[in-house]
Each structure stands twice: as structure tokens, then as C-alpha cells.
Amino acid sequence: MSAGLEVADVFRRHGDAYRRAHDGHLGRVERRVMSAIALCRTAALGGHIEACSNCGLVRCAYNSCRNRHCPKCQGQARADWLAARQAELLPVPYFHVVFTLPAPVAEIAFQNKETVYAILFRTAAETLHTIAADPKHLGAEIGLVAVLHTWGQTLHHHPHIHCVVPGGGPSLDGTRWIGCRPGFFLPVRVLSSLFRRLFLDELRTAFEAGKLGFFGDLAGLAEPALFSRRLRDLRRVDWVVYAKPPFGGPEQVLAYLGRYTHRVAIANPRLISMTDDGVAFRWKDYRHHSKSKVMTLDAHEFIRRFLLHTLPDGFHRIRHYGFLANGHRAEKLVLCRRLLNTPPPNPAGPPADMTATLLPVDHCPCCGGVMIALGALPLSQPRRPSFWHDTS
Questions:
Q1: Strand locations in 77-220 (E)
Q2: Domain co-membership, 114 together with 243
Q3: Of the candidates 198, 209, 211, 213, which has an alpha carbon nearest to the alpha carbon of residue 99?
Q4: 10 Å Cβ neighbour count for 76?
Q5: Are 71 and 6 in contact (CB under 8 A)?
Q6: Exposure string (b/e) for 287-301, b if CB count within 10 Å is 16 or more?
Q7: Which of 76, 99, 121, 123 could serve as 161's disulfide partner, Cβ 3.0–4.6 Å?
Q8: Alpha carbon separation from 131 to 138, 190, 386 (Å, rounded)
Q9: Could you tell me if 96 and 198 lie in one domain?
Q10: Spacing of C-alpha 297 from chain mean position
Q11: Can you give the residue range of the structural domain that contains 137?
């Protein structure tokens, strides 16, 4: 295959056989994701003919599927999201904190995505807020952006939350800014212990409210005694919370967010080759100093692993908390800047190293000139129903 291999090519070549082989186990969301990615930017979705006003390039521009799981449809969504976030950056250190679910909980999460992923978001945010508000640690109200990822490098199910957190916040009475110690945010062992307790308490509450379902190898957990035993075992193991060193500055924060917020399970550039039997892709082995390796999976196994990471309709994978919460963000940021004695930033666009990937689709890929629409291209098949598109 060419270097331009895409996930869409895998679905086009192997998707029908996969559907037939797994017909009784594929849900509506998974079927829609497969179809959307396969049809993305093809004549099936229609489009238009356009020409560059500068160099004269003429091309057919087909419509995107706009499915949030599609590797080709995240660039513009990411650019728009980052433009809104840039005005919210503060001139303080930013930290990256990761909350990871142990494998026995990840199994439960996969069978109860909406309920358990929501618990993961809430308890990670509550953990950070509680410890940061404690005067023994920081004594401040913090804000954070949390992003859900459900995959590891080899596409196995590995749910975890990435949190980007300003290193400080207004005092609890709102009279002064309290910054964290240089190079240090909050103690990870304290965060881990509280996160484990809060999460397992909420998981038990969800179980008692009948909000969890179990099937297959986990069917026995529907019995209260076995579920309680699972919780007791989970209280005895360490839960991984990882805090990375602070970013170099607000520009690095924005670049980092651009890489993480709209990522899908695997990006097209990681794909190497596809045959009648398998798909080969690059992955980083973090246990061996992030060494780059190649993995080849049976095509059906590749599709299965990709579909592990589909999200329920309407589920938000990017959430804001604390003084960055949507309800009062503007008011709280005014307070933060007043306490920091700093003016609002001047919008200047995304960092330079992201410009190429965020170039609007109405610009020429050759010279950067403006593309002018010349006429519409008809759909090659009937338009998809309204539920075709999903949101982030």
C-alpha cells in the first residue's frame, strides 16, 4: 500500500466481512462509525468543485463525515476549539495530571461506558479540587480541562483522563492568587488514595441504583456479594495518578492541548501497510524508553480494537471544571487576571508549529491561496439520515 494508507481504507476493504462475522455483536454506534469513516470525503457524501484564486489549482472537494471518531475530521474542530481556549490561558505554570483506571475497573467501564466514564470524570476533578483546596497542600480554587482517552498505543482498552491544570488559583475567599511551589503541583500519592476512594464509592452507588450491567465473563458481578468482593480487592491495589513536570509556557500548553483534545484511537500516519490478512502500524513501547515498534494485527482484530473506543451518543469527552467550568468561566477568569495583575491575552492564532495541520480547508494545499467554490457536486447515493453526525 501507499504511504497514504488510512483507517478508511481498512473499513472499505474489510468492513463488510467484519460486519457479517460480528453481526450479532455490533451496536448502532459502531456500525455508524464504520460507515461514516469509510464514506468520509468521497463522492457518496457530495461536495463541490473549487479553484485556487492564486495558482489556478482545480480540485474536487468532497464533504467530511464529521464523525468525532474519524481521523480525518478532527483538524478544523481542533482549530476552532483551540482558538476559543487561547484567550483563557493565564501567565502561570501549567501541569499535566493523568488518572488511570486499573484493568479490573476498565473491564466494568467497557460494559458500562456512559456511567463509568462519567464517574471517572467526576472523581478525577473532585480529587484535584479537594486536595488543592486543602490549606496543607495549596488552599486554592483551581480550574482544569479534562480529556478522556480510552486507548493505549496498541489500541487495547485503557481508559484514563488527561487533566491540564493551571498551577494555582484564587484563595478560597477570592482575595489573592495562590501559586503552587516551583515545579510541584500536588502530591500524587495523596491524589491516588482519594481518587480510589471516591471512584469506588460512586461505583458502588451506581451498582446499588441498578445503573451497571454485566455480561460475558463479568456476568457474575451482578451478584452483590461478588461485586462487593471486587470492590474490596480494588481497595487494596495502587491506582495510578501521574503528574508530569510543568509546561514551558502558555504556548506549549496550547500545542499540547491541540495534540490531545481531538485525538482518535489511531491517527492515519501511524498506519504502514494493509494486506488481505492484516494491518501493520507503528506504536511506542513506553516500557522500553518509548522505542518505536511495528505491530501487525489481523484486519478483523484491528477493526475490533478500533471500535473499542467508540463513545455513546452525546457523551462529552472534553470537560471543564473549577474556575474554567462553562457556567462561570468568563467571570472567574476576570478575577484570576485581576489577582495576577495581568491583562487578557491578545488572540494571535495557534502556535506556529501547528499552523500547517490547522490550515483551513478553504485554502490551497499548494500555495495557501483562497479556494473559490465553482459549483456543487451531487451525492452519489441518498443523503444519510439526521443521526449520521455525532458531536464531541
A1: 94-100, 143-151, 157-166, 168-170, 177-179
A2: yes
A3: 198
A4: 16
A5: yes
A6: eeeeeeeebebebbe
A7: 99
A8: 8, 8, 44
A9: yes
A10: 24
A11: 88-265+315-346
Task: Quote the cell numbers at residue 6.
Answer: 488510512
Q: Based on the domain organization, do 119 and 185 belong to the same domain?
A: yes
Categorize the per-residue pLDDT at 354 as very low, low, confident or very high, splitting at 50, 70 and 90: very low
Same domain, 131 and 241: yes
Q: Is the pLDDT of residue 387 over 60?
A: no
The residues, any chain, with a CB within 8 Å of residue 93's CB and separated by 6 or more, are 166, 167, 168, 179, 180, 182, 183, 246, 247
Cell of 296: 501487525
Label the pairing between strands 157-166 and 94-100: antiparallel
Distances in Å between the alpha carbon of 57 and those of 43, 50, 187, 341, 365? 19, 8, 56, 50, 9
Query: Under DSSP, is residue 151 helix (H, G, I), strand (E, B) or coil?
Result: strand
What is the count of structural domains for the chain?
2
Identity of the residue numbered 53: S
Are residues 330 and 252 part of one domain?
Answer: yes
Work out whether strand 58-62 and strand 47-52 pair parallel, antiparallel, or are unpaired. Answer: antiparallel
- Cell numbers for 133: 483546596
**112 and 65 part of one domain:** no
Q: Which of 78-87, 215-224, 231-240, 349-358 is predicted with the least confidence, judged by mean pLDDT?
A: 349-358
What is the pLDDT averaged over residues 47-70? 86
Which residue shows C-alpha cell 495557501? 368
Chain centroid to CA 325 = 18
Q: Is 70 exceeded by the pLDDT of residue 385?
A: no
Q: What is the CA radius of gyration of the chain?
A: 23
What's the gap between Cα 293 and its chain centre? 23
Domain identity same for 185 and 331: yes
All cell numbers assigned to 246: 510543568
C-alpha cell, 319: 470537560
